[in-house]
């Protein structure tokens, strides 16, 4: 937790721990060597996490020895123990329902993040590193064709470039 606090000051999150527990989704499961990485986060997310950690520290103080300090989890039950994956899935489902969106797997948030990064103009190599893909080709194959907005942006760039040649 101390390491996370320090990293939040620099707006970074280190993804390096792996623990396979079948009923837990809130522990990061690393699939490959490239999965071990440090990613930057926004100022807003850093503030949200800092607020969450302050709230979590209140539970630690209140429960003292009953709190599961040994697990050192960021997303957990109030006593510091593992949160069942159904808790996150159910919360995500409620959010989708309130927004009148179809049911989606929680992994769709990763895809949404990647597409929004690309639509915002992020470099494909940056997105590849952020997602932990082994090569930029994997990222490109999965995400480059998904977004109409991205397709239009690329066509507009091409048109702007060729105007100087054709004119």
UniProtKB/TrEMBL annotation:
Matches recorded under PROSITE patterns: TYR_RECOMBINASE
UniProt-listed SUPFAM superfamilies: DNA breaking-rejoining enzymes
Listed Pfam families: Phage_integrase
MF terms in GO: DNA binding
Domain of life according to the entry: Bacteria
Residue ranges of domain Tyr recombinase in the record: 1-156
Keyword annotations: DNA recombination
Gene Ontology BP terms: DNA integration; DNA recombination
Record-linked PANTHER family: PHAGE INTEGRASE-RELATED (PTHR30349), PROPHAGE INTEGRASE INTD-RELATED (PTHR30349:SF64)
Name the UniProt record assigns to this protein: Site-specific integrase
Source lineage: Bacteria, Bacillati, Bacillota, Bacilli, Bacillales
